[in-house]
């Protein structure tokens, strides 16, 4: 892994829990400037360690990730007029409702990605020539079990993925399709079944899929990975990465 040479400015969409929160904590600790768009900023602040709650490199903005105006406002670089942030971590998702076998908003990811891409497409008056062309790296958290390029989950998981998780997976596929078809420099991250628990030293395996050209470069099939270790992997390999090897690629990560 190549280390990040300069501090970055990163927009977080969906940072109030899970993988996104883990990436945010690592990014704050590393000194990156972090902007978090939240419906209730106080909920995010309460989940951060005490030593990060008042950090100067954290800016919280109240708003909805489905609101193009709110997203566009947060995409603006805080110190470079007309420029955008360096990266976007997209980790929004719905609340699963076991009794109905669905999520509270079955299109939450698709709508969020559409809002992000619409905001990125807006003209930026006053931007210098170079800044006007530069768009942020978009890192979007998806899921295993939705690829069209062969099985990426254990056989035992197939019934659960195709029945219990049918609606959220349909939403993730729609979100992925929008991002892949865009002109953004994106990376999709597909963790295996997410678990709770602290960050660990367990080795994380990563498979590589070129989703745009529909080619599998390598496979990593496994059962689970924690949200904390997913966030740590994203920070170390995508936020801190400088060699570009994951640009327009999909990473399947698991223990």
Brief overview:
GO terms for molecular function: biliverdin reductase [NAD(P)H] activity; riboflavin reductase (NADPH) activity. With 255 residues, the protein is of the alpha/beta class.
Describe the structure using short key phrases:
biliverdin reductase [NAD(P)H] activity; Polyketide_Oxido-like; riboflavin reductase (NADPH) activity; 13 strands; two-stranded antiparallel ribbon; alpha/beta; NAD(P)-bd_dom; 255 residues; 23% strand
Q: How are the SSEs ordered, and which strands pair?
A:
Layout (H helix, E strand, L loop, with lengths): L8 E5 L4 H12 L3 E6 L2 H7 L10 E5 L5 H8 L11 E4 L5 E2 L4 E2 L4 H13 L8 H5 L3 E5 L16 H6 L2 H16 L3 E7 L1 E3 L9 E6 L4 E4 L5 E3 H13 L9 E6 L1
Parallel strand pairs: 1-2, 1-4, 2-3, 4-7, 7-8, 8-13, 9-12
Antiparallel strand pairs: 5-6, 10-11, 10-13
Mean pLDDT: 93
The number of helices is 8
Report how far the terminal alpha carbons are from each other.
18 Å
* Broad shape: globular
Main sheet: strands, sense, barrel: 9 strands, mixed
**Oligomeric state of this protein:** single chain
Number of beta strands: 13
Strand percent estimate: 15-25%
The strands making up the biggest β-sheet line up spatially as 3-2-1-4-7-8-13-10-11
Rg computed from alpha carbons, rounded to a whole number of angstroms: 17 Å
């Amino acid at each position: 892994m190549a280390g990040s040479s300069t501090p970055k400015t990163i927009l977080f969409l969906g940072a109030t829990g899970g993988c996104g929160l883990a990436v945010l904590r690592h990014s704050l600790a590393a000194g990156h400037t972090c902007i978090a768009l939240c419906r209730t900023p106080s909920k995010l602040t309460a989940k951060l360690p005490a030593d990060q709650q008042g950090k100067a490199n954290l800016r919280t903005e109240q708003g909805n990730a489905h609101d193009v105006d709110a997203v566009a406002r947060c995409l603006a670089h805080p110190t470079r007029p007309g420029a955008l942030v360096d990266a976007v971590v997209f980790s929004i998702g719905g609340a699963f409702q076991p009794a109905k076998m669905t999520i509270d908003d079955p299109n939450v990811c698709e709508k969020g990605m559409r809002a992000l891409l619409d905001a990125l497409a807006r003209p930026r008056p006053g931007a210098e020539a170079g800044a006007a062309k530069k768009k942020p790296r978009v890192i979007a958290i998806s899921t295993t079990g939705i690829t069209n390029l062969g099985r990426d989950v254990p056989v035992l998981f197939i019934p659960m993925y195709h029945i219990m998780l049918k609606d959220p997976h349909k939403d993730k596929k729609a979100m992925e399709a929008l991002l892949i078809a865009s002109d953004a420099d994106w990376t999709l991250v597909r963790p295996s079944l997410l678990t709770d628990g602290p960050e660990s030293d367990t080795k994380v395996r990563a498979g590589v899929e070129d989703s745009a050209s529909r080619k599998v470069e390598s496979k990593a099939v496994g059962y689970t990975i924690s949200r904390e270790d997913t966030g740590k992997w994203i920070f170390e390999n995508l936020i801190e990465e400088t060699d570009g090897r994951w640009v327009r690629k999909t990473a399947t990560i698991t223990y």
